[in-house]
């Protein structure tokens, strides 16, 4: 190629490139101008409350700048204003994808679920904000949600204690003097047809019951499973392979084959964690599942729940004379004695204790951590405890802050699965912490 021709080709290429860049620059300028135009339009419409047109303008702006977090958040607001909540949530999710460490999209989405009283979804949003570090608003919402409850209305006359098993979370309830079982949402799992109903045991899969004066064991569907040859005045709940029973006026223990042991007691409690409470005459003791004494018969009382368990958790509540204190599963005293004490409701949880006429709380060492100030109280579980003031019950957290309004006539402790029984006037319902609601 001749030198002059090559020079012309080079000049042509440079000219073509320059024109291409000029075209690209013009397109960029045009796009930038259009982008500003759509933004300004959107802002004007938004200020006037014309949200449907603002939405359209912001959508056009986003088409020209698809990675804009701010415009995506604007679109979320507009979708919310026009009632398109699906679009709102989609924009929140897109904003989170664009800026996973920015708290605003998480908060916007969580607030939406809070307005809808869909607390479990709000909790999921807060949990998903793990990449947002040390944000006060996220932390405050998380704290609020941790004590937010959903009331599951029902109308049971009485309720028992929670006895949560890995495959079941049922509580005994009664209607018109007959007993059945309900789940934590209040739905009946076993109809209220029995004169007595104990606790479900996962290992044996059975529940003690009494119908028409006869005691036997049923499964969770109400089918008969275990029936003894002897006539019993009482059959208790199983634990550690044994169940308490009463025959001919004396208590002892049976296994699933109804082999009888130790029928020399005036009371026998159910086993949990290898420990049960028993009584001879006026005195109580702790025994192990080999039916050997852990303690002597020295106590005037050992507190048991509505199914006869004393040792579901790490401390057992006992009384000697007019003083209550806690012992471990070896019978060793923990901390000081009090004028009253409730059963422990969670391992390491604060226990309700009474000093004089008022109730406060003691820690796992038996030392006061919340000063006595309540008319009545029950122990902490999942960081919450029922307390009574002015004849009404509510719930406090471990800082002593009232987090569930004192409006109930009675209130129980929260189960490990996040449910508590509360009484309004004459009927019992259920509270479920939103984190545990499904």
UniProtKB/TrEMBL annotation:
TPR repeats lie at residues 35-68, 69-102, 103-136. Coiled coil: none annotated. InterPro entries: TPR-like_helical_dom_sf, TPR_rpt, WG_beta_rep. Keywords: TPR repeat. PANTHER family: DUF3298 DOMAIN-CONTAINING PROTEIN, GLR2918 PROTEIN. This is Tetratricopeptide repeat protein. It comes from Vescimonas coprocola.
């Amino acid at each position: 190629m001749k030198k002059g021709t090559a020079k012309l080709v080079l000049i042509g290429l440079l000219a073509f490139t320059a024109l291409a860049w000029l075209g690209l620059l013009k397109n960029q300028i045009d796009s930038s101008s259009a982008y500003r135009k759509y933004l300004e339009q959107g802002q004007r419409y938004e200020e006037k409350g014309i949200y449907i047109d603002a939405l359209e303008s912001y959508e056009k702006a986003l088409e020209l700048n698809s990675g804009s977090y701010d415009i995506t958040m604007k679109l979320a607001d507009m979708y919310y204003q026009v009632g398109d909540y699906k679009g709102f949530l989609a924009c929140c999710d897109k904003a989170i994808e664009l800026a996973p460490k920015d708290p605003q999209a998480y908060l916007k989405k969580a607030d939406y679920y809070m307005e809808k009283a869909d607390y479990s979804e709000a909790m999921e949003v807060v949990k998903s904000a793990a990449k947002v570090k040390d944000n006060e608003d996220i932390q405050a919402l998380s704290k609020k949600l941790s004590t937010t409850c959903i009331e599951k209305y029902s109308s049971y006359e009485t309720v028992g204690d929670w006895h949560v098993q890995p495959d079941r979370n049922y509580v005994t309830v009664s209607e018109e003097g007959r007993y059945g079982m309900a789940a934590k949402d209040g739905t009946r799992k076993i109809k209220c047809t029995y004169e007595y109903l104990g606790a479900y045991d996962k290992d044996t899969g059975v529940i003690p019951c009494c119908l028409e004066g006869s005691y036997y064991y049923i499964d969770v569907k109400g089918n008969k499973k275990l029936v003894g040859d002897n006539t019993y005045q009482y059959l208790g709940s199983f634990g550690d392979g044994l169940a308490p029973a009463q025959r001919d006026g004396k208590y002892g223990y049976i296994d699933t084959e109804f082999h009888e042991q130790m029928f020399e007691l005036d009371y026998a409690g159910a086993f949990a964690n290898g420990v049960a409470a028993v009584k001879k005459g006026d005195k109580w003791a702790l025994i192990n599942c080999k039916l050997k004494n852990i303690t002597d018969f020295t106590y005037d009382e050992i507190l048991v729940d509505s199914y006869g368990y004393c040792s579901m958790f790490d401390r057992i509540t006992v009384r000697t004379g007019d003083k209550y204190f806690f012992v471990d599963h070896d019978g060793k005293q923990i901390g000081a004695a009090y004028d009253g004490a409730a059963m422990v409701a969670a391992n390491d949880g604060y226990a309700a204790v009474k000093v004089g006429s008022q109730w406060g709380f003691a820690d796992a060492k038996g030392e006061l951590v919340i000063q006595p100030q309540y008319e009545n109280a029950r122990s902490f579980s999942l960081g919450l405890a029922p307390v009574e003031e002015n004849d009404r019950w509510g719930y406090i957290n471990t800082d002593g802050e009232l987090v569930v309004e004192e409006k109930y006539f009675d209130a129980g402790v929260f189960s490990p699965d996040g449910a508590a029984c509360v009484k309004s006037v004459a009927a019992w319902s259920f509270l479920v912490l939103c984190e545990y609601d499904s």
